[in-house]
Amino acid sequence: MKSCYIENISSISPQNTFGTEEFLDNIIERNPEIPYLSAIEPDYKLCILNAGLRRRMSHVIKMGVAVALECVKGSTVENPDAIITATGLGCLADTEKFLNSIVVNNEQLLNPTAFIQSTFNTIGAQIALILENKGYNFTYVHRGFSFETALIDAMMQLTDDEATRVLVGAIDEITPSEYEVTKRLGFWRNGAVMGEGAQFFMLSSEKTESSYAELIDVHQFQLKDNEKADDKINAFLDKHSLTMKDVDLVVLGNSGDKRLDVLFQNFKSGILANTPTAEFKHLCGEYHTAASFGVWCIANILKRQKLPFAMHPNGKVDKLERVLLYNSYQNVNHSIYLLEAI
Amino acid sequence: MSSYVTGIGVISAIGKNVKENLEALLAKRTGISCLTLFESTHDVPVGELKLSNEELQQMLGLPITKTYSRTALLGMVAVKEALTDAGIKTNSGLRIGLISSTSAGGMDLSENFYKEMLAKPNGGRLRNVISHDCGDSTEKIADFVGIRDYVTTISTACSSSANAIMLADRMLKHNLLDVVVAGGIDPLCLFTINGFSSLMILDKELCRPFDETRAGLNLGEGAGFIVLQREDTLKDKKPYCQLAGYANENDSYHQTATSPDGDGPLRAMAGALKKAGLKPEDVDYVNVHGTGTGNNDQSEGTALKRLFGDKIPHFSSTKVYTGHTLGAAGGIEAVYSILSITQDVVFSTYNFKNPMTDIMLTPVVDTIHNAGVNVVMSNSFGFGGNVSSLVFSSLKK
């Protein structure tokens, strides 16, 4: 694949990440009254100017659209050649709203708005409508692989010269009933905290002075038949003619779940014993596309040459030129990302 | 370089495999009938597969005690058939991927869970909600057939599986995989029946694509998958045809409606031909999106006229047989398009009577045998302005 540069980034998350120059300087702790990490939302009137459109948008659509528009605004183009979105559960609140109306109204005289907006590609479509973008428009919806495939797709677009700028974003929202259901499923029993957010990236085939980082590769996999995560990491590095010694920092997508985090504990005492590590999910919470927050952090780390204290750095960092991200969603979907400083 | 189609698999209201689907298409036998497998207050005809989940589980040799979404079950049938047809063994050392797509995911189960949860805060069986997300069926299918190298899922409404097929070709070209099974699935469920009903685009009778009297679509269910391979992995296998070209565009006109001038559909069709290195006059048959809604057929018809001028190739909508299977439509109709090439046949929109007065286009109304089919275009247009076209060509072209 050709080089792929992160030209601009944007995020709405449970931290102060939107419309600010700071980078995880002042950490927002979870409100003890609320069992999950909710996104800190901006005044959407300032981001989504069309009032009629904005009023119809649900929380997740507003988050996604606002972040996407912000990402485009700070890039070198007015419109990307392609828009690719990733989401685990899509427009969940609208889905629940329509389900609710089916039951309550016994299937009669239903308002179609929630149904229309419940479609998984609504956010990508709304961004295209607002930007009057007529290009390629895909939405990936595969758990902890959604954002990963979106990036692979974008890298193929850039390599094939189908596009020079691709807007890639990941969006997921919390709804109270989703929290209740996942709580019953035991997701939050062992220390992980549920989160939400939207991260968008303008990927470019060209490097500019203001580029954040170079995205070298993304690999997604499942561990089947006793396959070892260590072997997957080594094979990935080997493909790029690297060893762990060449990596300056590994950002880990451990969720805080004591049971699932054994994988990451084993990394730290094994393959990563001599490599500095950092974490991010305690800041954004766990969700299908939370890895996008990790990539947002790494893009900032590489551009600013600064590793925030809030990411729990572990080990001495000599330089920040090559960073690996290892993410796991529920120990089912695993992914490795490699990014380098410009 | 384009990839080759080496296997096909399909399940729909007109049959549980390729053979049954082909027989029904040739015999002009519709699968549109009354809803029987669950209750709805809407009295609308649907393209329902008359097999319960239990029957599908038995057919697949799965334990009856376990709960699977209908999405996963339909997908397992079609993916298994496609892989078997291609003669691909999942332990052959080839890197095999499954790129699936769906618009409803595991909604057929989770809508029941939600109903019970609404009635009682701790209500609803968890086994009915764990498969809600779209990735669940893909992972279940991959496990069932033994695909382990790559799985992902696309959801772009009614263009979903056409887009899955595009991604498959691109991943093969980039040598990220050797073989890809790509397509899509959607089950009938209350959520979509009520959704399309609330939009007032469900016809109370059999849908009439491209007909002046058309009054909406019939929903359907099913799954359609194709096996794509690069030339270097074909070995002795003789492929059915090539995936010659494709394009995905955004109409960028309205969240649910396609532009009246057919601008997006035109760009998708023209883009697919350009990628295939073909001209409009090379197309022998267009399997149109042709849902039977006022908006789609007017827009698509306008786009057909803009692209093909007065030399409109044979075209038909096979949704009169299957209903509109939403996320599965692009996959099911890709299978039908491939069959059109391999059987040298053009399928019909058999109930067509009156051309739209503003468009005046007439689809094929009777099956045409020995039609000289080498190049087939398949259209899939979805919510969010998502418009996609695929072009398949025989190996002669």
Could you give a short description of this structure?
The complex is a heterodimer of chains A (342) and B (397). With 342 residues, chain A is of the alpha/beta class.
Question: Layout of SSEs?
Answer:
The complex is a heterodimer of chains A (342) and B (397).
Chain A: E1 4-12, H1 44-47, H2 51-56, H3 59-73, E2 82-86, H4 92-104, H5 113-118, H6 122-131, E3 136-140, H7 146-159, E4 165-172, H8 176-184, E5 197-204, E6 213-221, H9 229-239, E7 249-253, H10 262-269, E8 277-279, H11 281-284, H12 291-304, E9 322-329, E10 333-340
Parallel strand pairs in A: 2-3, 2-4, 7-8, 7-9
Antiparallel strand pairs in A: 1-5, 1-6, 4-5, 6-10, 9-10
Helix pairs in contact in A: 3-6
Chain B: E1 4-12, H1 18-26, E2 32-33, E3 46-47, H2 53-60, H3 70-86, E4 96-101, H4 107-119, H5 134-145, E5 150-154, H6 160-173, E6 179-186, H7 190-198, E7 222-229, E8 241-250, H8 263-276, E9 285-287, H9 294-308, E10 314-316, H10 319-322, H11 329-342, E11 345-346, E12 368-369, E13 375-382, E14 386-393
Parallel strand pairs in B: 4-5, 4-6, 9-10, 9-13
Antiparallel strand pairs in B: 1-7, 1-8, 2-3, 6-7, 8-14, 11-12, 13-14
Helix pairs in contact in B: 2-3, 3-5, 6-11, 8-9
Structure description:
The complex is a heterodimer of chains A (342) and B (397). By secondary structure, chain A is α/β, with parallel strands linked by helices. Chain A has 2 domains: 4-204, 3-Layer(aba) Sandwich (Peroxisomal Thiolase, Chain A, domain 1), CATH 3.40.47; 214-340, Thiolase/Chalcone synthase (Peroxisomal Thiolase, Chain A, domain 1), CATH 3.40.47.10. Chain A has 12 helices and 10 strands. Chain A has helices spanning 44-47, 51-56, 59-73, 92-104, 113-118, 122-131, 146-159, 176-184, 229-239, 262-269, 281-284, 291-304; strands at 4-12, 82-86, 136-140, 165-172, 197-204, 213-221, 249-253, 277-279, 322-329, 333-340. In chain A, strands 3-2-4-5-1-6-10-9-7-8 form a 10-stranded mixed β-sheet, sandwiched between helices. Chain B is an alpha/beta fold and 397 residues long. Chain B folds into 2 domains: 4-233, Peroxisomal Thiolase, Chain A, domain 1 (3-Layer(aba) Sandwich); 242-393, Thiolase/Chalcone synthase (Peroxisomal Thiolase, Chain A, domain 1), CATH 3.40.47.10. In chain B, strands 5-4-6-7-1-8-14-13-9-10 form a 10-stranded mixed β-sheet, with helices on both faces. In chain B, strands 2-3 form a two-stranded antiparallel sheet. Classes of the chains: A alpha/beta (342), B alpha/beta (397). At the A-B interface, α4, α5, α6, β3 and α7 of A face α4, α5, β5, α6 and α7 of B.
